[in-house]
Amino acid sequence: MHWNIALDNLDYFLYGTTTLDWQFPFIHNPEGMVASVILAFFGIFGAFWIGMAAGLMRMSKRWWVKIPAVCYIEVIRGMPLLLLIFWFYYLAPVITGETMPAFTTTMFCFMVFTGAYVGEIVRAGVKALPRGQMEAARSTGLSHAQAMKLVILPQALRNMIPSFVNQFVSLTKDTSLAAILGVIELTRTGIQVDNREMVASFEIWITIACLYFMICYILTSYSRRLEAQLSRYQARDR
């Protein structure tokens, strides 16, 4: 067994050559688990707002609002994430005339891909509420947009939290696909160390798996806590 090799490279797995300073964006040349966390965080943040917009647009009664959202959600959900990454990476130079950095490409793809699934979560969460909620809100004089913003979404979002977290855990694991484009995230650091040492593959990949498990376990634990809080709120409302 060569656990000493995995332990000696643990700092490289965690942050690689990442540097910190007080100049924006504060974290420079992110690598290792730091890069994976950054990709997941910004992918999650962007996907939430893209998915929120797509989900609400899909429920619109105006066809010119609904159709683009339907096309986006159905096309992206029917496409493998790896294919989407390649598609964006090789299409960007054709459109912009410049090659988009691999890190930026994968981050954007994570936003677009996960946003389609978030859109369906939003639609399902809103549809799960009784129709009387919207009718009661409209009867008070609120417009449809005001009723959605002030009455429907606050209730629906509370029910969507567990589904959101599960989708974001899946995205965290999918950040490993960034290694295909050469992004030095957690999986890529494992490949590099394994190719260099060549005698500790088992130990290296067990370490990488444990680091992914640690990130995902934190997210799933937080999800369970939110579900418990949601159950208490629902019981109190009854």
For the structure shown, list the relevant keywords.
mainly alpha; about 0% strand; about 240 residues; 10 helices
Write the layout of secondary structure elements.
Layout: H1 3-8, H2 10-15, E1 19-20, E2 27-28, H3 32-58, H4 63-77, H5 81-96, H6 102-127, H7 131-139, H8 144-174, H9 186-197, H10 201-237
Antiparallel strand pairs: 1-2
Mind explaining what this structure looks like?
This protein is an all-alpha fold. It is built from ten helices and two strands, in the order ααββαααααααα. It has a two-stranded antiparallel ribbon. α3 packs antiparallel against α8, α6 packs across α8 and α9 runs antiparallel to α10. The longest helix is centred in the C-terminal third of the chain and has 37 residues. It starts with a helix and ends with a helix. The model has no long low-confidence stretch (mean pLDDT 86).
